[in-house]
Design goal:
Two copies of one chain form a homodimer.
Chain A: H1 12-20, H2 27-38, H3 45-50, H4 59-71, E1 75-78, E2 86-89, E3 96-101, E4 107-111, H5 116-126, E5 129-130, E6 136-140
Parallel strand pairs in A: 3-6
Antiparallel strand pairs in A: 1-2, 3-4
Helix pairs in contact in A: 1-2, 2-4
Chain A binds a DNA duplex through helix 2 and helix 4.
DNA sequence: CTTCGTGCAAAAGCTTTGCAATGCG
DNA sequence: CGCATTGCAAAGCTTTTGCACGAAG
């Protein structure tokens, strides 16, 4: 084998991921998963298309596979305030944060991806790179906030 | 005056806001500002259009006025993960939060609206209503993170 | 009176849907 | 072999652009 960085893409990992969720293995899914895992930063649908040299994949399929992977928890979505939707690979078991209810004290864990958009915003606007695990976010849980549901309230 | 809730809309406040930023006062700007201030929750462009009974305003103009107001800091944008862009009135002086640099300890203040999208996400997904002021977010500031700019890193 | 803002029409951009052909298991 | 998945074409929906008219200061 030459000294190049590119090992033969047999997509072992990607195959395993699809098998784990009990879904069909197709060339398109393998390649898209692979490209997302290899990407250094979240990709838009067409950046992803561009990253798929071996076999060009129809945009339609890309969107469908992205939705598919999202539903199965293998990708996370990023929605920056300006610009297009982005997607990144999501490791099944990952970092998390905490929603702490101010009234009943309950502590709900949320996946790290919930902060993705905030990260993007703070990076774009202030050049600030968020580095945090177990961020505590105070507020009212679903049960306690019944009388005033989902206000954009700050306090 | 009858006991109804609707005072005659002379748009005093809206006029003052536009005058403060030294921009022209038009019927469209007044009405859009008024509707946003009156709205209980962030509006999409066409919810806004629907809320403008007196004088129907062209969608084009609505978008242009929203951009205009955004540039002048009078509205904030919300970008939920699913669904359309939303806009809400932004009070010129407002709550804020802190970006704390882990390396140099610098503390940068950011407006509360930076959390809007996170709020929306947590509310939609978990029914959790964020209630926080002076949230401390650790990370690396623009100066300190020069060697690894804007990674989606967590640590 | 001069400049800026608006409405209309049309385009642009991204994403989704319908349907027949192909590939997976 | 049966059913899920793909590609292609076309539609859908939100937002943007060009241009001439009209309003603001």
């Amino acid at each position: 084998m030459p000294l190049h960085q590119t090992p033969p893409p047999d997509y072992e990992v990607e195959r395993a991921l699809l098998r784990q969720i009990g879904q069909r293995i197709t060339a398109q899914r393998l390649q898209i998963l692979h490209a997302l895992r290899a990407a250094e930063r979240p990709l838009t649908a067409d950046e992803l298309a561009a990253a798929l040299h071996p076999l060009p994949i129809d945009p339609t399929t890309i969107y469908r596979v992205l939705h598919f992977l999202y539903e199965h928890g293998l990708v996370a979505q990023l929605t920056p305030e300006q610009g297009r939707q982005r997607y990144k690979y999501r490791d099944p078991d990952d970092l998390h944060h905490h929603l702490v209810c101010l009234r009943c004290g309950s502590d709900m864990q949320i996946p790290d991806e919930s902060l993705d958009t905030l990260r993007e915003t703070l990076c774009a606007r202030y050049g600030f790179t968020v580095k945090v695990n177990h961020l505590m976010i105070p507020g009212l849980c679903a049960t306690c906030r019944t009388q005033s549901p989902c206000q954009q309230t700050t306090a």
